[in-house]
Amino acid sequence: MGAPRVLNVGAITGGRNVPSARFRVRQYIPALLKHCVCINELQSWTCAYPPSQRLQRPAWALLRLLEMAGASIRSHRYDVTLLQREMVSTFATLERWTGRPRVLDVDDAIHLFRQGSTARTLAMQCDRVICGNTHLAEIYRKWNADVVVLPTAVDTVRYCPRMPISSDPSGEMIVLGWIGTSANLRYLESIERALTTVMQLNSNVILHVVCDKPPHMLAVERARLKYTPWSAANEVAAIQSFTIGLMPLEDSFWARGKCSFKMLQYMACGLPVVVSPVGMNAEVLELGEIGYGADSIEQWVAALTYLVEDETVRCRLGVNGRQIALRDFSVTSLAPRFAGYLGFNTDEIKHEVPHRRD
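Above: the chain sequence. Below: its structure as tokens.
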């Protein structure tokens, strides 16, 4: 018997610098080759999201559609087309003209836009939908019979604890850390009162924010707020400098669509976490003793104070989180599953599909 055929996948993503393209497509490429799946990202210079300046949007839309037209034509050269969300933010455009079989990957609550019409159209035009969490999967099963769940993976080789794991990287300082985009700063700012209370109770606590824009937190002493502009080059070292990872959210349909990636990054780096137990966050908390869920300002204060005061607990929870990240959310552990989801048993595609777990 000869070697199994390599499955060639043409992936159309949101753009070069879009996080979902990095973490749900690009970082899998080397690992999937070991499972006879070759992903070819049909890269574009434009981004799926419109520029903030309205006057620039017509030119952006024209360029984006031209690039997507080219990508749609090229996609017919591949065995499978992978659509990483919609080609143009909130719109269904040229997706129906891409090659088939066609797989849609969704890691956010895009079904909340345009009364769900775009998400419904894309789901019905695809042969399979891969969702980043169970909440999204429940939504898309209304529109497509073949829906599977694949969490956003963490590269646990790159995201790893700063050694030794038992000591705080800032010496005597306890660093409450948050990393994310400025669009989500409102969640961090919503627990400002809890953070300032913990800082007032503990003189050795500071807040470190890694983001494309600084936070607006006037109640936090300037000397105890560290801001680091985000970059791909510094994100891991920044997380490794934290003592406790924070992921506050509001309990909304939008937040339930999130895939807990911030939380998983902290866990991979061996940090205990305090998070809002919303959506997938609650599911990850149930996997083991890795941190605490907080629903109110009082619960945020209690959880953070407990961790600030007990290094032994911080270390134990951090080790547990790292083990769960390796077992359930690493690129290595999820690559065989992803390879199976990209495979189709058709006459046109003949290859060995790895065992699939739904």
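Residues 346-358 have pLDDT under 50 and may be disordered.
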